[in-house]
């Protein structure tokens, strides 16, 4: 296995619940009013130190979206999903953004 390179974030950030790897800056929160399978979740404009799973169409509370689940690069834990495509016009603002679940603020 190769060497793992992690992006270190400067400033207040959110981290993986399991291994404390930085995932996103507090300044990159777009919305705190998201719900996930496990409770509260936040929408971020930018996340780091994640890798994506397979694309799939998923019916969400706000309509059909193409999403990929995202995982922590250090420990492999599921941390949320990324919106690839929104079928509804009023949901297009989510495209390219990520939702993180079970957050730990640093």
UniProtKB/TrEMBL annotation:
Coiled coil: none annotated. Residues 12-106 form the Yippee domain. Keywords: Metal-binding, Zinc. InterPro entries: Yippee (IPR034751), Yippee/Mis18/Cereblon (IPR004910), Yippee_fam (IPR039058). The keyword Metal-binding applies. GO terms for molecular function: metal ion binding. Belongs to the yippee family. This is Protein yippee-like.
């Amino acid at each position: 296995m190769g060497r793992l390179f992690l992006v270190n974030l400067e400033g207040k950030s959110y981290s993986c619940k399991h291994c404390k790897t930085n995932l996103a800056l507090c300044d990159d929160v777009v919305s705190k009013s998201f719900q996930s399978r496990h409770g509260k979740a936040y929408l971020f404009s930018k996340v780091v130190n994640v890798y994506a799973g397979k694309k799939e169409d998923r019916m969400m509370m706000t309509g059909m979206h193409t999403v990929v689940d995202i995982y922590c690069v250090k420990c492999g834990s599921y941390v949320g999903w990324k919106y690839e495509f929104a079928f509804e016009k009023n949901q297009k603002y989510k495209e390219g953004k990520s939702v993180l679940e079970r957050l730990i603020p640093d």
